[in-house]
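Researcher:
Attend to token order:
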Amino acid sequence: MKIRFMSSNPHKIDEVQRILAPAGVDIIAVAQKIQELQTEDVYALVEDKLVKAFGAIGRPLFVEHTGLYLSGLNGLPAGLTQIFWDRLKADRFARLVAGLGDDKVTAKTVIGYCDGHKMHLFEGAIEGTVPTIPVGSPDFQWDCVFIPNGSTKTFAEMGSAKDGISMRRIALDKFADHLTIAMGMK
């Protein structure tokens, strides 16, 4: 089954394709930038993004947003993670978290899917910590500053092994299950 995924991030597109391919889902990347609602409420952000994306394309598609929820900042930056990251980058982000005295963080992905009639949301979350210094490539945003619980490596150090445990994986598995049921394949 082919389905459109609106994202302009090539790393995210590759990761989503790797995760969904075994479920029989082939994504068609739509590299169109959507002006995101600036809010800490990730559900409102994804719903707004999905409405705008569907309005631009007019066909079933999905969008996603992944954010970090820092314990030491009472859950911020949440839906504002991209702005936060763009301003701080890896080194300053790690120093900020170290200065908080609380390195606990939750990474959460929310996927929004519009089938043409109804909006569906799917969430995946994983707990972890932020290292005192970034480790691994900073190419895929904050992967170099997220160590999932139970690991000693950042997502950036894991490479594609991250696909098996990530918050995006959890959300995409729920999405793939929904598609399978909706298409009558289960």
User: Anything to note?
Assistant: The chain has one domain: 2-182. Strands lie at 2-6, 26-30, 61-70, 104-114, 119-129, 147-148. The longest helix spans residues 81-100. The radius of gyration is 16 Å.
